[in-house]
Design a protein that fits this description.
Elements: H1 2-35, E1 37-38, H2 40-50, H3 52-73, E2 78-88, E3 91-93, E4 100-102, E5 105-119, H4 123-190, H5 195-230, E6 238-239, H6 255-265, H7 267-287, E7 293-305, E8 309-323, E9 330-342, H8 345-351, E10 354-362, H9 370-436, H10 442-478
Parallel strand pairs: 1-6
Antiparallel strand pairs: 2-5, 3-4, 5-7, 7-10, 8-9
Length: 486
């Protein structure tokens, strides 16, 4: 009994040990996943793989593929089989004797019918072409959605980088404040200076800490927005900061050149063009209603009925049917006797097997002007689609000119911010030396430090705007999203 108890205790301990190791491994994997560095490219890739809007677009593409396959199969003949089991009661026509009978009759009917369209005004051909175009439209729409999501991820990613750089600047400013605060504390304790300078620096240190805490909150909010844009299920990720390269406007890039490239690669223009093509095909499809429809059909059929009887056990006998007048000579004739039964199922199907083939022609004469009304409506839709192409091109051109202008302004703003930060830093260092020499006050040094802090944040803000505007312009020019290239 003790050995059995020990056996179960051993199993239980082993199971708990395995569970503990499994939990440790799981936590280790989660920790490792959380510590991974996420580049912009990886964030975009994850968003495209998990975004529900992308999933919807993929479903639309598959639906378009299914519609195209179905329309292609419309070229092939249709083949249908039918069967029925019937009971007739009361007065009905016997299908074998073609006479009225009054009895219950059980019967079966079987048929196979094939039909193929020979000519219908190229309706099937144009419908297939429209389905092919609609499939391309679904793919272009999916690409448009992917581009928008990628741009949203890039914007959210840069916001996180901007917030992290702000935090770094605030921490660096606070280091300078703490250095001055420690020195002021020593001087106050030694009685060299008054306590007012120390209190000014202490207040500045409190403001720095408030700015640091606010920057941390901005990082959390920016990261949350990035995770929401990616539709990431975790609570946080560690992004890999890109090595920004600041470039001026390249001499090889011009607004007109970017417009030409964008019109050839952006899915928006192609989407508008495919919309017009579908409208034109709709006009051709509606026009097919004016033409005759010619189709070929074939049919094979058979039936079974209880009224179909067959004879068996046939016998013959002589019977008197009268006498010869005068001689009373009997007159006899031969009668045939037989029994009947319902013909077998298989025999009836074989005997009643029939075939039919023919052509069916339908000629439209008057249909309340529906065909011509559809033709006019399709033509007007094509004109609207044509105008939409021009509208999309105009809007695309305006967006590119705006993006190019924003890029030039961002370059100028960034250069000015760099110069201002350099000047504010030099001013702070000068005021710091003056304060240490007793020429300037601590309040003046704190003010200079705040000006330098604002200038450093202005640099980060200008850098963010420069990188983002360059990313947008590069996207229009190449169709790719990158924040580290020219």
């Amino acid at each position: 009994m003790k050995s059995i108890v020990l056996f179960f205790i051993t199993i239980l301990v082993s199971f708990q040990t395995i569970t503990v190791f499994a939990s440790v491994d799981s936590l280790s994997q989660e920790s490792e996943k959380a510590s991974e560095r996420w580049t912009l490219e990886r964030c975009i890739e994850y968003a495209l793989a998990h975004n529900v809007n992308i999933s919807d677009q993929d479903i639309n593409v598959r639906r378009s593929e299914n519609t195209l396959n179905q329309n292609r199969l419309n070229r092939y003949p249709t083949l249908n089989a039918s069967a029925s089991h019937n009971y007739n009661f009361g007065r009905s026509i016997d299908p074998f004797t073609n006479q009225f009978v009054t009895q219950r009759i059980q019967s079966n009917n079987f048929s196979i019918t094939g039909n193929v369209v020979v000519f219908n005004g190229k309706r099937i051909t144009n419908t297939i072409a429209r389905s092919e175009n609609e499939l391309e439209r679904a793919r272009l729409q999916a690409k448009t959605t992917e581009n928008q999501i990628a741009l949203n991820v890039a914007d959210a990613f840069l916001q996180v980088v901007f917030a992290q750089n702000q935090l770094k600047n605030f921490e660096e400013i606070n280091k300078s404040t703490k250095t001055q605060l420690d020195q002021a504390k020593l001087m106050v304790d030694a009685g060299v200076t008054n306590e007012r300078q120390y209190l000014n620096l202490k207040a500045q240190d409190a403001r720095d800490k408030m700015n640091i805490q606010s920057a941390k909150g901005s990082i959390r909010m920016a990261t949350l927005r990035l995770l929401q844009t990616m539709q990431y299920e975790g609570e946080s990720i560690q992004i890999e900061k890109p090595d920004f390269q600041e470039f001026g406007v390249s001499n090889t890039i011009s607004p007109e050149g970017v417009v030409m490239n964008a019109e050839s690669i952006m899915p928006d223009v192609k989407l508008a063009q495919s919309q017009m093509k579908s409208a034109q095909l709709n006009e051709k499809i509606s026009k097919s209603g004016l033409y005759p429809r010619l189709s070929l059909f074939v049919n094979v059929n058979s039936l079974y009925s209880e009224s179909r009887l067959e004879r068996f056990n046939q016998t013959s006998e002589l019977r008197e049917i009268g006498f010869v007048e005068g001689s009373n000579q009997p007159v006899v004739t031969q009668f045939t006797n037989y029994e009947t039964r319902v013909a077998s199922f298989g025999q009836q199907l074989q005997d009643n097997f029939g075939q039919a083939a023919g052509l069916s022609l339908s000629i439209p004469i008057f249909n309340n002007n529906q065909v011509r009304a559809n033709m006019v409506d399709s033509k007007l839709s094509a004109l609207i689609a044509e105008n939409n192409i021009e509208r999309v091109k105009v809007n695309l051109r305006a967006d590119i000119i705006q993006a190019y202008t924003d890029y030039e302004n961002a370059i100028a703003s960034y250069a000015s911010a760099i110069e201002n930060e350099k000047a504010q830093k030099e001013n702070y260092l000068f005021v710091e030396k003056s304060t240490n020499a007793g020429v300037s006050t601590t309040a003046e040094m704190v003010l200079a430090l705040n000006d330098w802090s604002v200038a450093k944040n202005d640099v980060e803000r200008a850098r963010f705007q420069l990188v983002y505007s360059r990313t947008i312009l590069n996207f229009y020019n190449t169709g790719e999203i990158s924040i580290s290239g020219n």
